[in-house]
Amino acid sequence: MRIGVVGTGYVGLVSGTCFAEFGVEVVCLDTDVTKIEGLRNGIIPIYEPGLDDLVEKQVKAGRLSFTTDIKEAVRDVDAVFIAVGTPPRKEDGHADLTYVYQAARDVAKNIEGYTVVVTKSTVPVGTAREVERIMKEANPNAEFDVCSNPEFLREGAAITDFMHPDRVVVGTESKRAEDVMRELYRPLYLNQTPIVFVAPETSELIKYASNAFLATKITFINEIADLCEKSGANVQDVARAMGMDGRIGGKFLHAGPGYGGSCFPKDTLALAQTGQKLGARQTLVEQVVAVNAARQKSMAQRIIDACGGDVKGKKIGILGVSFKPNTDDVRDAPSLVVIPMLQEAGAQIVATDPAAMEEAEKKLSNVEWKDEPYDVTEGADCLVIMTEWNEFRSLQLDRVEKNMKTPVIVDLRNIYSLEEMKDRGFKYVSIGRKEVDGTKPSLSAVAL
After folding, report:
1. Which one of 147, 263, 307, 382 is the catalytic residue?
2. Which of 42, 188, 262, 409 has the most CB within a 10 Å radius?
3. Quick check: 367 and 349 in contact, CB under 8 A?
4. What architecture is the 208-282 domain classified under in CATH?
């Protein structure tokens, strides 16, 4: 089989490369000449573990190629996947479908013979129908079917998620399109991966509903964490016991500074806006959006409080700025809210991240960037663990304490246990757990 993929961003590049791994001939299209030239030379524009090796393998095998020519991308293909960006519009939060609709017009004008056109981008309910209308308007003689095939790729684990998904969702009412999609996903079907065929509107909503539910779980446990702090309970123990219930499950019950990234903020907002537009308000999702925004802001105040209520002139070290580990994505990351608020309060920020510093520099100003975590601790009045990268999980705490001006750690990811911090001399503030005051017992007290 042969397919075209419009867009070489996160979804398009990962999906196209993984389809090539299945044995499909894939041509990836992008209008960014520099990006395409880079991909042809093995330069991967995104950080995703294992993707560079897989791209290199498929290019060498002749199954994966890159172009800026729309005709080349859609010529003699069985399907074209539209995988372009759908960012929220600044004025109202609705998903901006400009790129999707333009891609639909371009595809319609250049396809030859029957083609399945697949919306792979995350799009609101009704988009597949609108794409079909736009394509018919652009080329009344084109022979095609439009279907929805949302992605469920976690950044940092995208290749595994594509190769071993929980399910594949396809929205189409065309038997001909269904047959094409079955054949494309046949390697997964042979591994007994569930392939769910539904109406396009249902497919589109499954994506939003799934992400909104996960965002709700995160927001729920964050509010429970606040209650734990007031009552003396331990949120990690609460979450662990909750997760043992098969009806609940333990995933996404990790308290922290709030969700971020390219999906949850955008998708929850889009779902809420769609509900308002169609007269079926998603009040729970609307509240999740509001609570998460407030939580990110509250993290800055938590850090200020840990520093005695004033950070003016103080040096704050930040470990991690990406919204999660194993990605360079800083979109809607808590760090983009917390760091500017600390700077407004007069703090000097020193930060590091294993992958996201280049992206963060585009969003943050007046930050001193360091390559190593111990460089961040030098002379710091407070050390903040913002992202739970593995590199930060086993710090030499004696070295950290020696480097710091004031031994204060604010752990927004709960990656250290309370027990190991008790005798270290740190003031240790985490999420939903008791605060460690950092007071070492005196020699006289030990003698008594």
Report:
1. 263
2. 409
3. yes
4. Orthogonal Bundle (1.10)
Distance CA 342, CA 335 (A): 10
* Positions of CATH 3.40.50.720 in the chain: 2-198, 296-443
pLDDT digits (tens, 9 = 90+) for 294-352: 999 999 999 999 999 999 999 999 999 999 999 999 999 999 999 999 999 999 999 99
Q: Give CA–CA dist 352/343, Å, rounded.
A: 16
Q: What are phi and psi of 27, to 5 degrees?
A: -120, 120
| pLDDT mean across residues, the chain | 94
Q: Quickly name the fold that domain 2-198 has.
A: Rossmann fold (3.40.50)
Q: 10 Å Cβ neighbour count for 307?
A: 22
Single-letter amino acid code for the residue at 398: D
List pLDDT tens digits, range 186-243: 999 877 899 999 999 999 999 999 999 999 999 999 999 999 999 999 999 999 999 9
Respond yes or no: is residue 147 known to be catalytic: no
Residue ranges of E strands in 269-386: 315-319, 348-352, 367-369, 382-385
Q: Is the pLDDT of residue 105 over 60?
A: yes
Please give the backbone phi and psi of residue 114, each rounded to the nearest 5 degrees, phi first. Answer: -65, 130
* Most distant CA atoms of the chain, gap in Å: 92
Say whether pLDDT at 109 is over 70.
Answer: yes
CATH class of segment(s) 296-443? alpha beta
